[in-house]
Amino acid sequence: MLFKFKFLFRKKRKNRDIDEFDIEKEEAEKILKILGGVLVDVRSPKEYEEGHMEGAILLPEYEIKKKAREVLPNKEKIVIVYCSSGGRSKKAKEELRNMGYKYVYNLYNGYQNY
Question: Is residue 8 part of a domain?
Fold first, then answer.
């Protein structure tokens, strides 16, 4: 069902670097508003303190293996991860998916562009 909703929001992609689990800010906002989910900042605590997206929880990329099950107990819930530029969040997305989280998306180009 999520994928049906996701594609309703999806714009035609101009950039071929975007994969099916990368989403832009507007898409993320619509998905979170309509379907709910968790917005996760995977940057460092210092970066998070300096500013973060409204409603985001902190789970640094380097602590995902250790703390994800505690912070994100529901593997069926939508999770949108972001970092500064998209590199750490892309790794975090893959790690969470490997841990069994079904609906994990990466905020394309990260926080710096918003």
Answer: no
pLDDT band with cut points at 50, 70 and 90 for residue 74: very high
- Residue in 40, 68, 83, 96 annotated catalytic: 83
Domain range holding 62?
Answer: 38-114
Whole-structure pTM over 0.90, yes or no? no
Q: Report how many domains make up the chain.
A: 1
Active site residue 83: yes
C-alpha distances out from residue 50 to 12, 59, 84, Å: 33, 15, 12
Provide Rg for the chain, Cα atoms: 13
The rounded distance, in Å, linking the Cα atoms of 100 and 36 is: 19
